[in-house]
Amino acid sequence: MKKISCILAVLAATPALAADTNWGAGADDAAFQAMLKAGFREKGIAKISRLDQDATQAFCSDPRHAVDKDSAKQREKIEAENMATIKWPADGKWLGDWKEGEKIAQSGRGLTSTDKAGDVNGGNCYNCHQISPKEISYGTIGPSLLHYGKLRGMNDETLRYTWGRIFNAKAYNACSNMPRAGHMGIITEEQIRNLMALLLDPQSPVNQ
Amino acid sequence: MRRWNFALVAMTGASLLGAAAAFAQADKSIEGIEKYREALKDGNPAELFEASGEELWKKPAGPNNVSLEKCDLGLGAGVVDGAYAQLPRYFKDTDKVQDAESRVLTCMSTLQGVDVSKYVNANWASPEKDQLNAIATFIAGMSKDKPVKISLAHPKEQQSFNMGRRMFYFEGGPHDFACATCHGQEGVRIRLQDLPNIPTKKGAAAGWTSWPAYRVSSGQMWGMQWRLADCFRQQRFPEPIYGSDVTVALSMYMAATSNGAVMATPGIKR
Q1: What pLDDT was estimated at residue B33?
Q2: How far apart (Å, rounded) are the C-alpha atoms in residues A204 and B171?
Q3: How sure is the predictor about A91, in pLDDT bands with cuts at 50, 70 and 90?
Q4: Which of A44, B85, B106, B178 could lock B171 by a disulfide, CB 3.0 to 4.6 Å apart?
């Protein structure tokens, strides 16, 4: 009895932990779906269908899936599915213009409810990554990409890996925080080429 | 107020112009903004919104021509003092968990006879939303320095907390963003903006206890409803409906996780 009341006391003191089980997918699904349906409305280009999750989004909406051992097989499956979506440059041309790439990396615009259809989207890169040493206003959610090309060298493996990672980051890490920029149509193949140049061109400030 | 905006723009502009300099400068500009924020605390323009919110609270209005002074915010009809620190909570009359803002809508409807759909559907920068933000600022100000005290004793309160937590991790949209994408790690930032790690008590407190807040960059007063809506906009989600269960659930998750932290309302932001 003492043990029980002790546990209850702990639960009462830490409501955040009281519900550690029974809160994710599988628990109260109907109520959650009803809440979503009643809670949002379309605005501009941001339609309600954006709440329809694909398999990757549904899987990664449980934070335990990103790390727990039991989910390793599922993570591999998700990564393989995303790998299959990657479109490689048709003409074998990997690198564009790093100056254009810098502009794309700087821009965080596009696809919000207040953006217009047909607007040019940005890559959002500096929001999360350090890239050029000239830009001190960078985020830290993603790793630093300073000296990216200089550190890795320009070989086929690096070119392919970097392209793939920009096109669909979830092919390499199932629940990466990084958007699937190519796969989801956020940026175009031409924009990816320019970002590739920003990271890999020896003339790019990134590699100075 | 306009002058202050200009000062901040000039300050951040100046720090961006010097972007070629070393990283130490990044820390310096954050420090500068912090200092500026500290200085502004002595004269937070939010006080003006608190005053107009109090006026709106006490003024007879609506078809019934009565004030909101009899509104029950959870501590009994008419008790505003300390009420915000104990919201969201379950209300028997609506059989719902409500935050301060959705509760005010209920009182406007039941006491004053106001058709609140006009207020729900109005744009963010509109006279209707200005009123709601001012009232929320007044209510929150009356909980300044009080500890957050959220109960999950009622099953619907527990359910709201669970749903809010699930929503926090819910990925969607073209960018696969969830709240957790930016607010689920310790010590990270977007550009130079530090991000609270909401699942921790400290992070939840940083996210919860300083809203409603006056936003210097836009010269606007934002309640938590507006704050959440702008998060979802940046997540590339459709728009959350003002006062909807999903917004209340997210507030419930944040507020309960910050239990015991001290309310610092109204806040002031960049």
Answers
A1: 65
A2: 34
A3: confident
A4: B178
Judged by a CB distance cut-off of 8 A, whether residue B21 touches chain A is yes
Sequence-ordered list of residues with C-beta below 8 angstroms from that of B201, at least 6 positions apart, any chain = A16, B257, B258, B259, B260, B261
CB neighbours of residue B58 within 10 Å: 12
Report the pLDDT value the prediction gives residue B21, as an integer from 0 to 100: 43
Record the pTM.
0.88
Q: Cα–Cα distances in Å, from B173 out to A111, A184, B78?
A: 9, 9, 42
Interface test with B, best of A40, A57, A136, A180 (most B CBs within 10 A): A136
ipTM of the complex: 0.89
Q: Do A141 and B182 touch (CB under 8 A)?
A: yes
Mean pLDDT over residues A6-17, rounded?
A: 41
Q: Which residues of B touch A50 (CB under 8 A)?
A: 172-174, 236-238
Residue A76: other Cβ atoms inside 10 A = 11
Identify the DSSP state of B69: T
β-strand partners of B14: none
Q: How confident is the model at residue A27 (pLDDT cuts 50, 70, 90)?
A: confident
| Of the partner residues A40, A50, A186, the one whose CB lies closest to the CB of residue B241 | A40
- C-beta atoms of B177 and A62 within 8 A: no
Per-residue confidence band for B41, with pLDDT thresholds at 50, 70 and 90: low
Handedness of CA B241, B44, B30, A109 (dihedral sign): positive
Contact B162 A139 (CB under 8 A): no
